[in-house]
Design goal:
Elements: H1 2-15, H2 20-32, H3 40-84, E1 91-92, H4 96-102, E2 122-131, E3 134-142, E4 148-155, E5 166-170, E6 173-180, E7 183-190
Antiparallel strand pairs: 1-2, 2-3, 3-4, 4-7, 5-6, 6-7
């Protein structure tokens, strides 16, 4: 029975013919090789490349900004710890000129911050310390209210923190972190 079915199927398909135009198209295709047809992947590849570049252009600055913020916060936490130790000044100085002449082994010159001018802080002295694994100076200041404040300065070379001032509140202290005059500056004071 299956042989009758096989025979009928074979006769049916043998009786069928492709239209002449289709036969001509197939012969041309075989003679000329495959048509240069772009696949979907190749067609969308330039769009995908542009989308990837745009994504990277957006993601890299955000990544750098996030890393800079994490470093600023880590520096602020370290400054809060230094402030909370309440260490005495090693070098008494009422002005920055005196301080600069007496602190020669820092590798940089302590400077007066323009950000502190409106706060009318008075310098009482300094001590050597470290911040973010770098030599630093811890300046002890008295603000207009008579509160003791600490300004820590270190070199900004290879320190990737945000160029704008960042403020943190850590353990009851206000901590400001910024770059100025080629230095990283961190001000710790009571909140």
């Amino acid at each position: 029975m299956s042989s009758d079915l096989d025979r009928h199927v074979k006769e049916y398909y043998e009786s069928k013919r492709l239209p002449p135009q289709t036969v001509e198209d197939l012969r041309a295709l075989v003679a000329g090789g495959p048509k240069a047809r772009r696949s979907r992947v190749v067609r969308w590849l330039p769009v995908a490349a542009v989308a990837a570049l745009v994504s990277l252009a957006i993601a890299i600055p955000f990544s750098r900004h996030a890393a800079a913020n994490r470093l600023s916060e880590r520096i602020a936490r370290e400054a809060a710890r230094i402030y909370s130790q309440h260490l005495r000044v090693e070098i008494a100085a009422a002005d920055y000129a005196t301080l600069r002449t007496r602190m020669k082994s820092l590798g940089f010159v302590p400077v007066e911050s323009a950000n502190l001018a409106p706060m009318r802080m008075r310098l009482i002295g300094a001590r050597y310390t470290s911040l973010a694994g770098r030599p630093a100076v811890q300046l002890e200041l008295i603000d207009a209210k008579g509160e003791l404040c600490t300004l820590i300065q270190t070199t900004a070379e290879d320190v990737q923190i945000a160029n704008r001032q960042a403020q943190y509140q850590i353990d009851g202290l206000l901590i400001d972190v910024w770059k100025e005059k080629g230095l990283v500056m961190v001000l710790a004071r009571p909140a």
